[in-house]
Amino acid sequence: MTANMRGKTQTTLLPLVYVLFLAEFARSAFLLSFLPLYAAERLGFSAAAAGLAVSVHYAADTAIKIAAGFFLDRFSPRALLHFSFISALAGIGLAFAGTQPWMLVAGAALLGIGISPLWLLCLSRVQEGQRGGQIGLIYAVWLAALGAGPVAINFTLEHGYGVSFWLLAGFLILGWALGAAWKPDERRHPRGNRRLSVNRQFGQLRRKLRSMKPLLPGMVLQMAAVGLLVPILPAFATGSLGLSLPEYSLVMIAGGACAVALLVPMGRLADRFGHMRFLVLGFAGMAGSMLLLLFASSGLPAALAVAVLLGLSCAAALPAWNALMARFVPEEQKGTGWGVLSSVEGIGIMIGPAIGGWIAEQYGATTTVVVSALLMAVLAVFYGLRPIELRSRAAGKAGDRM
Length: 402
Description:
The chain has helices at about 5-10, 15-40, 45-70, 75-95, 100-125, 130-155, 160-180, 200-210, 215-230, 235-240, 245-275, 275-295, 300-325, 335-365, 365-385, 390-395. The protein is mainly alpha-helical. The longest helix is centred in the C-terminal third of the chain and has 30 residues, at about 335-365.
């Protein structure tokens, strides 16, 4: 990256990347570690109740995206940022203070409504000439937060749920403070769609969606496969794999660090050798990693090896997938465009945790892992047998390398 490109990234995107890291740190810690354990041990709720809360969280996250994108294309991004952190803080507060399942679910929903618009703020700041690198940066930060949040909270959980809650709140407050100091450059991102009718905007987006039909199975199923694991990960690690919470944290660090370190290099290789190849390899690697996890009962070394393989697979799939997704976002309506596409993706993560919790209660956590692996394997076979290069070029992107 040249000095000029780095300067543009620092002024247009980097401040929001810091904000996104802090917010996603709190969200991942809450959903992946705090909520399942707090619901079961402190409140006495079932795994299905925790799974429902996570599903409602992502349903709210998905539902708010189109409205947030519509708002972002027309009004102040700073107002949307303040709304995000107010909602997120109210959500974790309600969940922590709640004594009934509905309060846990409502708190999770408010957290989803709060975090979701931050993604649109970041993605709408991506510049056309630096799309691959900047999207890679956003997802690298997300993965870092996804790994760091649960790791940190697992250590504080040994000192009580109150300490853990205030850590989550502190990260959200710090993110809000950094966001309040952010000054968006509206000359680079004019809100010119105020005069464009809603019907016309959604007509343009419908045409985009029709052209990307081959991507739709992946948009839903890959997120559903990930969502299945959310309510059972801590229990599976400590029960089936026999790991302690610190060991579970170490495994998550290994997998997350591998993914973050390889995300940009794998993205560059995908640009050179073809996005579809890396997408298929990534899905197949994730399926294989999850199945290998069933045989990692020998302890920490085996679990670490599987985590590294899973991180490598994620690093192969994520840049390729998002490079394909970015093709279908209209330049003139980035907020609404990313909102619609993210909403379609969110359907999978919305339904996954509830189904995963139900499967775990009926058939055990091991079955949930198997189902998740099979979904990833189906996607690898589907895109291996049905490449989409020609359809993407026919959609008006001739000249872009797949």
